[in-house]
Amino acid sequence: MDVGNPLLLLWDAYANYLKTEFSLGSKGEKYQEEVISIIRSLEKVDKLSKKHGKGIRPYVLYFLGCFYFKSKDIFAAKEKLEECIRLKSKSSIETSARELLGNIWNYQIRPPWWRWWLNSPFYRWHKRIGFIILSLSIFALLLLHPFISGWFPPLQINWSLYVFLIALLVAILISPNIERIGARDIEVSLHSPPPLKHVLSPLVMEEGIKELEERYSVK
């Protein structure tokens, strides 16, 4: 086998995955050992893919993210999927990477609310700006209300509305960590994880490699 050809190495990793999936199932210590072996192979492919243009690399990074997820290393999976998305391949792989990354970030890592706003892998700067606006609005309402009567004597503060507004802004700010809302006998779950399809089935991996073969010739 040409050890310098990333596509051939991908097919080899696929063959190992196919054998592992159908002979060992998807659980057990032996299965995890085989997954780690596949990850090592894909890491080598990732290094090689840097020399063959960025067309191959999004696929390799997506495969790596999926296998790290299977090995239960969710932080390594997050890192690879973020890198895959940053390459902006505009392919079905990018869409799948976003779906898996969203599940990992929101339902596996479940960051504290301030990290959700400040370090989100999606729309990071939009969320940071939103966090700043919400925080400043809350502090402004809390700090300025004693001076409003002095500055605008005719103005009467509606305290019910004032408290409601602050509570609403605080609720929005910490909403990423509010898992459910309950009232009497009713409880509504806000963060039930959506059903996650089978992460990278052998068929999906095979289709991805075939797509690469059709789109890119690797010398």
Keywords summarizing the entry:
mainly alpha; 4% strand; 2 domains; 2 strands; 219 residues; elongated; membrane; 9 helices
Q: How would you sum up this structure, described in words?
A:
The protein is mainly alpha-helical. The chain has helices spanning about 5-25, 30-50, 55-70, 75-85, 90-110, 115-120, 125-150, 160-175, 200-215; strands spanning about 180-185, 185-190. A two-stranded antiparallel sheet has the order 1-2. Helix 1 packs antiparallel against helix 9 (about 200-215), helix 2 (about 30-50) packs antiparallel against helix 3 and helix 3 (about 55-70) runs antiparallel to helix 4 (about 75-85). The longest helix is centred in the middle third of the chain and has 28 residues, at about 125-150. It is elongated. Mean pLDDT is about 85; it is low at about 180-190. Keywords: Membrane, Transmembrane, Transmembrane helix. This is Tetratricopeptide repeat protein. It comes from Candidatus Argoarchaeum ethanivorans.
